[in-house]
Structure formats: structure tokens, C-alpha cells
């Protein structure tokens, strides 16, 4: 029995270490060593690094090898370029501080891509990993920023499910028309909704969204008492002037 308990504890300890970036027998590379892996004739291979993680990208030689569209990424950690698209010497750097949430999500997406499609080699000693292969403060800050960006993305997606964008069209003769459908805003659903102006705290202006006009408010069970008006009573919504309250489309005349 004690052997089983010991094995379980060992497994938990290993999982804890893996979550913190410690991998058994992980290869550590210096920046000078990584520069030798640019895929040129006579060089030992073709590697790139992202957030300090090194991947063997030999299978993508036509993209990452000499003359390829992404050859500037080879033999280095150019994490910032994955977000900015700047492949000049100034952009091919590993500093990801100050990036916006969408840019951080781009790095996260690329990291998932390399994990899924290329062989991991080890870690680059420098900004993101120390000489023992342990995560640095810079990596912890980057991962925390990415986690926050993912949280923001999830919240934004939830808001989009609650308030899908309206369809819209404009013409000089008829003005602007907003309308709702069961696919408007790219959100497929079993309700149509009615157009409303949505105001967000701290943001100037409004945007047109489709709002459920029946059933309980968003997130409230049907079993709870409710007014059967969906989300129409949401405090950040405003009805379009001159538009019938339950109309599925609104036309705003120009001039």
C-alpha cells in the first residue's frame, strides 16, 4: 500500500514540476548554440524558439529555412514578431512586454500550433528560462498576461453570445438599416432578438446588438420568477429612436 501511495505522491510532484516548466531531461540551449540551427548547409538543424521553448521545425524547411518567408524566425527567439508581424531586426526580439491582449493571444495561438505540429527540443537559456531550466520572472509575467488575455477573450465571447452584433447596411437613399436574424453577428442561436444600442462603461458611443425579448434574463434559470422580457431591461441598453419596441429591424434615415 505504501508503495502505491509513494507512487501517487511522486506523480503529483512530477505534475507540479511540469506545470512550472521543469521537464525531465529537457535540453538547455544557449543563444549562441541556437544560432547554429538556421537550416543552412552544414548546420546541424533548423530550430526556432517561442517564449523560450525551442522547436525543431525541419519539417517546415521551405518556410523557415534560408530563403523562406519565415527564415528570420530561425535560430532565435523572436517571440515579439509572432504578435507584431515585424520581421525587421528591431522586431525579431524576445521582449513581449507592452503587447496588447490580442497580440498576446496571437503568441498563445502560435505556441499551441508549434506544440501540436513540431517536435519540442528544449529550452533557451535567457529571458524566459535560467541556466537550470527554471522559468524566469519574465516568463511568469508573460504567462500571467496571456492568462488575463484569455480570460478577457472568454468574457468577450460570453458578451457576444448574450448580445450578438446586428446585421447592418447603408445607402444614401435609405439611410442605415439594422436588423437581427438567428445568425447575425456570426452567432448561431435559436432566437432572433430585436435591435438595441448597447453602451459600455468607459467607452464612447454605442453599437447595435440583438437582444432577446422573451424568457428570463441572461444566466437566470427559467424556474426563477421573471418578467418574460429577456434582456430588454439591461441597464446598458437603449431603444433606437423611432423604432418600434419589438421590431426585428430599424431604419435610421440620413439627414
Please, could you describe this protein's structure?
Heme-binding protein which promotes neuronal but not astrocyte differentiation. Residues 1-21 form the signal peptide. Belongs to the cytochrome b5 family. MAPR subfamily. Keywords: Signal. This is Neuferricin. The longest helix is centred in the middle third of the chain and has 26 residues, at 137-162. The chain contains six helices and ten strands, in the order αβαββαααβαββββββ. A hairpin with a 2-residue loop joins β2 and β3 (53-56). The protein is α+β, with helices and mostly antiparallel strands and 255 residues long. 29% of the residues lie in helices and 17% in strands. α5 (101-117) crosses α6. The chain has helices at residues 2-19, 31-34, 61-64, 79-84, 101-117, 137-162; strands at residues 27-29, 47-50, 53-56, 119-124, 167-171, 175-179, 194-198, 207-211, 237-238, 249-252.
Task: Please specify the SSE layout and strand pairing.
Elements: H1 2-19, E1 27-29, H2 31-34, E2 47-50, E3 53-56, H3 61-64, H4 79-84, H5 101-117, E4 119-124, H6 137-162, E5 167-171, E6 175-179, E7 194-198, E8 207-211, E9 237-238, E10 249-252
Parallel strand pairs: 1-4
Antiparallel strand pairs: 2-3, 3-4, 5-6, 6-10, 7-8, 7-9
Helix pairs in contact: 5-6
Query: Could you tell me the number of beta strands?
Result: 10
Across the major sheet, the strand order is 1-4-3-2
The chain-level mean pLDDT equals 89
List the total number of helices: 6
Radius of gyration, whole Å: 26 Å
SSE succession: HEHEEHHHEHEEEEEE
- Poorly predicted parts: 1-6, 12-22
Q: Which secondary-structure class do the elements indicate?
A: alpha+beta
Percent helix: 25-40%
Strand count, sense and closure of the main sheet? 4 strands, mixed
Q: What overall form do the CA principal axes indicate?
A: elongated
Instruction: Please state roughly what percent of the residues sit in beta strands, choosing from under 5%, 5-15%, 15-25%, 25-35%, 35-45% or over 45%.
Output: 15-25%
Please report the distance between the alpha carbons of the first and last residues: 83 Å
Keywords: Signal
Function: Heme-binding protein which promotes neuronal but not astrocyte differentiation.
Family: Belongs to the cytochrome b5 family. MAPR subfamily.
Signal peptide: 1-21
Amino acid at each position: 500500500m505504501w508503495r502505491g501511495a509513494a507512487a501517487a505522491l511522486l506523480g503529483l510532484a512530477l505534475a507540479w514540476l511540469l506545470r512550472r516548466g521543469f521537464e525531465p531531461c529537457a535540453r538547455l540551449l544557449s543563444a549562441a548554440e541556437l544560432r547554429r540551427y538556421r537550416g543552412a548547409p552544414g548546420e546541424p538543424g533548423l530550430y526556432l524558439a517561442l517564449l523560450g521553448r525551442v522547436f525543431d521545425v525541419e519539417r517546415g524547411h521551405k518556410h523557415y529555412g534560408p530563403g523562406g518567408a519565415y527564415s528570420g524566425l530561425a535560430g532565435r527567439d523572436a517571440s515579439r514578431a509572432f504578435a507584431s508581424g515585424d520581421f525587421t531586426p528591431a522586431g525579431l526580439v524576445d521582449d513581449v512586454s507592452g503587447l496588447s491582449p490580442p497580440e498576446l493571444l496571437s503568441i498563445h495561438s502560435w505556441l499551441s500550433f508549434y506544440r501540436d505540429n513540431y517536435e519540442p527540443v528544449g529550452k533557451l537559456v535567457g529571458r524566459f528560462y535560467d541556466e537550470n531550466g527554471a522559468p524566469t520572472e519574465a516568463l511568469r509575467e508573460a504567462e500571467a498576461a496571456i492568462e488575463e488575455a484569455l480570460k478577457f477573450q472568454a468574457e468577450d465571447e460570453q458578451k457576444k453570445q448574450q448580445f450578438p452584433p446586428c446585421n447592418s447596411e447603408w445607402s444614401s437613399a435609405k439611410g442605415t438599416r439594422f436588423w437581427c436574424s438567428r445568425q447575425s453577428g456570426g452567432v448561431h442561436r435559436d432566437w432572433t432578438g430585436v435591435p438595441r444600442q448597447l453602451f459600455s462603461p468607459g467607452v464612447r458611443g454605442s453599437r447595435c446588438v440583438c437582444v432577446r425579448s422573451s424568457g428570463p434574463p441572461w444566466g437566470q434559470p427559467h424556474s426563477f420568477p421573471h418578467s418574460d422580457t429577456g434582456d430588454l431591461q439591461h441597464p446598458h441598453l437603449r431603444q433606437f429612436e423611432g423604432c418600434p419596441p419589438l421590431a426585428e429591424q430599424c431604419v435610421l434615415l440620413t439627414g
